[in-house]
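Please, structure for the following, as tokens.
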Amino acid sequence: MNKALMNKIFITLGFLFAYRVLAYVPVPGVNVEVIREFFNSNSNNALGMFNMFSGNAAERLSIISLGIMPYITASIIMELLAATFPSFGQMKKERDGMQKYVQIIRYATIVITVIQAVGVSIGLQSLTGRAGEAAIMLDINSFIAISCASMLAGTMLLMWIGEQITQRGIGNGTSLIIFAGIVSGIPSAIGGTINLVNTGEMNFLVVLAILAIIIITVGCVIYVEMGERRVPISYQRKTVMQNQNKRIMNYIPVKVNLSGVIPAIFASAILMFPSTLLQASTNKYVQMLNDFLNPNSYFFNVLTFLFVVFFAFFYASITFNSKDISENLKKQGGFIPGVRPGESTMAFLNEVVGRLTWSGAIYLGLITTIPWVLVKFMGVPFYFGGTSVLIVVSVALDTMRKIEAQIYMNKYQTLNAVGL
């Protein structure tokens, strides 16, 4: 394997290791045991899901207990603004504008992190352990200031780690951070399942059924994520002769799932954000609303399905620009057989993408909800979601593709260097 690729892999692993170390650094002034007891008793609701995405950092009230979700929430807001207001959309297309766009996301992340940190700090004020010990060992004003500063620093560190992985390592840094957080909880989940089987609380056949569901889900994710529609392209004879020594793409690859794992991450971020704030309230109506947002409720999973479908269409419309593709084809002398260049090509591509996105959106919605429904009917006492499986498998596939692309690029560079 090429040395440059090995360096990128080691850089990625190093930053992910630093992320896992940060997960064990608690916010000053908290009783970690009380926090852990609280999360253990709420493992099957929104807090349990939030804890899973943070890599179990939330149950330790680590400085990165808010995870990368504030950054993702800020990115969602900016994507919506870019799709709504042309000035923000134009900002993304320009080099200098993109830097300003990213900077706005960072500032929005700071605001969201502070709001969430204050909500968590106030909520911990009334939290006590089984023996009556308080969760906070400082006065509330000092603790709010310390926790806000600590969590803000932790979230900014995570955001920086994600950017460094994207720029200097392999794969998308934000997705890999979420991937590492979910994977880190697999050993404890396996250990907990073994204990349930040993104590007789869970039948071994149920474990086999859950394993079968996971394998089928993984197989479906791999099958669909690798699927694509190849729209054929033909070129004028003049263009072919001019580029006979160059590789000309003779098709446009359109993936079945154009938006990847982003809709599932966006949906989870949006649904977990209000849950984090609502946990701090003791109002019965607010608590009733919080119960509706419990990941073990049907209402939550219906919302998840709808949000995933919406974001699948929304993100696909951003990532696939049929107008630019049709214009580039026209400039290069290329055309789709049987379709006129220009507006007709753009309409044809929009039709193809629309059909594929509809199928991809339904697939994403079903993958994120159906496994939960099956496990719910089995009466399993812990939460299993297709969202986590989808994220893990999709991120793993994407990282493998980028490693393969890097290997092929290194081979081409070697051949060019020796004159072949």
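Strands lie at 228-232, 234-235, 251-255, 334-335. The radius of gyration is 24 Å.
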